[in-house]
Amino acid sequence: MHIETIEIGEVVARVSGAGTPLVFVHGFTTTAEFWREQIGAFSSRYKVVRINLPGHGLSPRPPGRSYTIEAFADDVLEVFLRLDIRQAVLVGLSMGGTIAQSFTLAHPERVQALVLVGATPHGLGEDVNVDNVLKAIDDLGVVQASQNVIERSFGSAASQELLDFARQEVAQTPDFVAREAIASLNASDTRSRLGDIRVPTLVVVGNEDVITPPAESVILAASIPDSRLEVIEDAGHFPMLEQPRKFNEVLTAFLWACEEKVCPTSGQGLSQHSI
Q1: Where does the AB hydrolase-1 domain start and stop, copy by copy (predicted)?
Q2: How far apart are CA 192 and CA 141, in angstroms?
C-alpha cells in the first residue's frame, strides 16, 4: 500500500488510496499512526487522509502559533483546501472529535458524514482534567505525564506491544503544545449546538473507556439529530487500535449505508448497539 507524506502548512498528512475522502483526526498528544489499523481496511475504496496536527507526530511545532481547538480546525480546513477535498467523511478521536465537531459546525457543507470516537461535548474524564494534566506535566514532565495517561487509556485486553507503541507516539508532543491544547480542550463546549449538526453521525466508544466514559458518548448521540451509538466491547479509549476488526466493521457498515443514502441514523433518532 503506497502512503504519501504531504506537508500542508504546519500539518504533515499521510495519504493513501483513492475515492471518497475519509479524513482522520487524532487526539491529544497522539498521532496519525493511531489510525494505522484503518489504512489497509479502507484505502482500497476510499482516499484515506490521516492528519498529524501541528505539534504532534511528524508535524512541525513552531512556538509562535496557537494550539487550540479553533486553530486545529483551521488546520483541517487547510488540508481540505490544499488536497482539493470538497466534501469528506470526517473521523475524530477524543480531542480530534472535539475538533471535528467544531469543524462541522463551522463548515457543514464540507462534511458528508461525521464519526466521533471516544469523544465528548465538553471536557474529558478525570484522568485528563486540565488541572490534573498540568500538575502532572509540572511534576513529571510532559513525556511521563502523557505516557501515564496513555497507560490508563487502554482496556484490559490491550497487548504490551500496543502500550509500547502508544507510549512512543505520545512522547513526541512538546510541553508548550500539550499545555495549550489541554486548556483549550477543557474549555470547549458544544452542548448547546449539537442540535445544529445535521449530517449523519456515528458515535463510537469502548465499553472500558475511562478517559471519555461511555456516558459522554450517550449524551453526544442523544443530542445530535441523525446519530447512532456503537459501543465496542473489550476496548478502552482507542477501539480502532484495540479492536480494529470490530471497529472497521462498524465504520464500514456506516459508510456503505451513507453511500446508499440510507444511513442507519437518518430520520430515526438515537439507536444503540454493542459488539
Answers
A1: 22-249
A2: 35
One-letter-per-residue 3-state SS of 210-274: CCCCHHHHHHHHHHCCCEEEEEECCCCCCHHHHCHHHHHHHHHHHHHHHHCCCCCCCCCCCEEEE
The total domain count for the chain is 1
C-alpha cell at 80: 481540505
Tens digits of per-residue pLDDT, 200-252?
A: 999 999 999 999 999 999 999 999 999 999 999 999 999 999 999 999 999 99
CATH number, domain with residue 55? 3.40.50.1820
Answer whether 203's CB lies under 8 Å from 220's CB.
yes
H runs (alpha helix) in the chain: 39-42, 69-82, 95-106, 130-140, 142-153, 160-170, 175-187, 214-223, 239-242, 244-259
> When comparing pLDDT for 274 and 152, which is higher?
152
> Which domain does 185 fall in, by range?
4-274
Average pLDDT over residues 78-86: 98
